[in-house]
Amino acid sequence: MREGELTMAGATTEQEPLTGKVALVAGATRGAGRAMAVELGRAGATVYVTGRTTREHTSEVGRATETIEETAELVTAAGEAARRASAHEDGAGGTGIAVPTDHLDPAAVRALVERIDREQGRLDVLVNDLWGGDVHVEWGKKMWEHDLEKGLRVLRLGVESHIVTSSCALPLLVRRPGGLVVEVTDGTEEFNRRYREPFYYDLAKSGPIRMTKGLARELPEYGCTAVCLTPGWLRSEAMLDTHFEVTEENWRAGCEQNPHFAISETPVFVGRALAALARDPDVARFNGQALSSGGLAKEYGFTDVDGSAPDAWRYITEVEQEGKPADTTGYR
Questions:
Q1: What DSSP designation does 240 have?
Q2: pLDDT, block means (10 residues), the chain with 332 residues
Q3: Which of 85, 100, 118, 187 is paired with 56 by a 20 to 30 Å CA distance?
Q4: Buried/exposed code over 250-266 (b: 16+ C-beta within 10 A; e: otherwise)
Q5: Backbone angles phi, psi at 176, to 5 degrees
């Protein structure tokens, strides 16, 4: 299947490129955010990528190896590759623009949105992929045992940052019908009905789902849509080099530590999910829903880079959570 093709009933054979569209991926330094920005650029969008780690400054996450400048370069490179491969005379590829931004600073976010308005005059896709709270989560501790300041920082990074960004950016997005807001979280709505301990992590990852439902009630009168999106077990940079001490090339060696790691997916998979949503003229049918990369792969027909389509949350629920031996047969 060529990239961009669809298999779902009622859809056109190939989605239109995002040429002329403008996206803001808030939290695009690494992982899912970076991949979503790259895939939007590959599809033709002009993509503003934001985060706190630059080539001159490292955020509290402590990973100087990934920067928003590098993300912007990857977006532009993907756009250039798409242009070269495109059958369209004007090409389809987009461009990346890096803007260092602390999304807990309303003045900084307002300045970012004013810049987008000044330079582009529109905003078509807003992706709230803001996080960075793992370094503050005290896994295995009860609510009252968890350091309070660290817990509140988790909520600021995982919830407040999303609220600040939407509050500042939505006035620009709702100027035109067809706008799409994507809240990014960890876990499907069904899976997150269970307690995602510890306490502060549970709140931080349930928040975007609830925010989506609220925005889904307020945006339709402007012709805009809100959805929540989760990757599966993401093979992010930190998951590979820190948690499992493997590379993308030999990632399956991580299954020796945890055999269920076999269901994991690259960030590209959720990037392709986001691009498919952004290119879908009928995306409003998903308004208010919590979606997953694996579920959307069934809708749109895209795959991960290895040609598989891992359905991680169904696997985690039906296999890992049930204590069954690791076996991805029928799940990827």
A1: I
A2: 35 68 98 98 97 95 95 97 75 87 98 98 98 96 98 98 98 98 97 96 98 98 98 96 96 97 98 98 98 98 97 97 97 94
A3: 118
A4: ebeebbeeeebbbbbbb
A5: -120, 135
